[in-house]
Design brief:
Elements (H helix, E strand, L loop, with lengths): L5 H26 L16 H8 L4 H24 L3 H25 L4 H26 L3 H25 L22
């Protein structure tokens, strides 16, 4: 058997060097770190069993009470999931929480007659949202950046829903001012 010559050794070494060079560039590409992407927004829906319970409520008071109980349960679950660092599951619970409150307000707007009972229900919703806002803010503070954007969006929505409930509470006693009205009486007299 013939011993390989110097040039034959180099020829065998060349493919090994090419292969090593290509693998090192692949390894270099894998070292690139992409910035973290924000989590997708949670799906806002009411589960079928909750929807069935809401539809079977006998009146607005019972339906509102059930909505508040279901929303409270979802918020407690979301807090537990956040403490366990399961942020996707917490976001899913907050999506159901959001849907329950939106549905409760929409139902009250649709069925209320403007009486004192409807105002009491709107006030109850507003008070509950006020209490929940602090708890949601506490969850946001312990949530990593890629998930906290969704919680910030929920906080803004909770504030908007609370404002909507308050406006419905005072809808027949407070007149809104039209800023484009030239006869606006809020301007001081120039006499």
């Amino acid at each position: 058997m013939k011993r390989p010559t110097f040039f034959q050794k180099r020829l065998l070494l060349l493919p090994a060097l090419v292969c090593a060079a290509s693998l090192s560039s692949v390894a270099h590409v894998q070292d690139l770190v992409l910035p973290p992407q924000p989590a997708p927004p949670p799906i806002v829906y009411i589960p079928e069993d909750a929807r069935t319970g809401l539809l079977s409520a006998r009146d607005n008071k019972a339906r509102t009470r059930l909505s508040l109980e279901l929303a409270e349960a979802r918020l407690v679950r979301a807090e537990e999931q956040t403490n366990l660092k399961q942020f996707n599951a917490a976001a899913a619970e907050l999506g159901v929480y959001q849907a329950l409150f939106e549905d409760a307000l929409e139902h009250l707007h649709r069925t209320s007659d403007g009486g004192s009972r409807a105002r009491d229900l709107f006030k109850r919703l507003e008070q509950t949202l006020h209490k929940h806002a602090a708890r949601i803010e506490a969850m946001r503070r312990t949530t990593p950046g890629e998930f906290s954007g969704n919680i910030r969006t929920l906080l803004k929505l909770v504030r908007d829903l609370r404002t909507e409930a308050l406006e419905a509470f005072y809808s027949d006693t407070v007149l809104s001012q039209n800023r484009s009205d030239p006869t606006n009486s809020s301007k001081p007299d120039s006499t």
